[in-house]
Amino acid sequence: MQFKKIAFLIISVTLLFTGCGSKDEKKEIIKEKQTKFTLQTHELKNLNIEVKKEQVSIEELKGKAVLLNFWATWCPPCRAEIPHLNNLKKKYKGQLEIVGFNLGKKDGTLLSQEELNRFIEEYEIEYPITNSDDNLKIATLVGPVQSIPSMFLIDPNGKIVQKYVGIVPEEMLELDIDEALGK
Predict the structure, then answer these.
(1) pLDDT digit string (tens) for 48-82?
(2) pTM (2 d.p.)
(3) SS3 string of the chain?
(4) How many domains does the chain have?
């Protein structure tokens, strides 16, 4: 009986100090967040986007103010703002680009390219739209976007200068765009 107690005590102490880990030095693996993306627009053009803190760089749109629009086809305010965004695109031609980031259907799936193209045609969208799983990653990095529509105004140097949640009057956007452009 005494032998069993001593053996149990020795085994318990040994397990206590050795644990279940290996003798090798533990290495912590740190997963780096993706910050660079290549998205394709509905017009089949690539946009190379890099997001870092309060900066968003879109290689193809350097030197322009950019309005990032996070939206979905099922969202009534998102649909209501389309004519205003088209107006801004026309008013600031060559100085402002609007990029729509479709966040998918209510069930979390993406629209098919055909569904997206029909929607773009029906609502006469005049700015590039991306339809990618990476849209959600970008929404998380710049926002995080928690409700739609959400927009982010980027100045020509790539700095996020304004954030909008919900539908925003066109006149308010104009004031902020003018300021971002140094007018």
Answers:
(1) 999 998 899 999 999 999 999 999 999 999 999 99
(2) 0.81
(3) CHHHHHHHHHHHHHHHHHCCCCCCCCCCCCCCCCCEEEEEECCCCEEEEEEECCEEEEHHHCCCEEEEEEECCCCHHHHHHHHHHHHHHHHCCCCEEEEEEECCCCCCCCCCHHHHHHHHHHHCCCCCEECCCHHHHHHHHHCCCCCCCEEEEECCCCEEEEEEECCCCHHHHHHHHHHHCCC
(4) 1
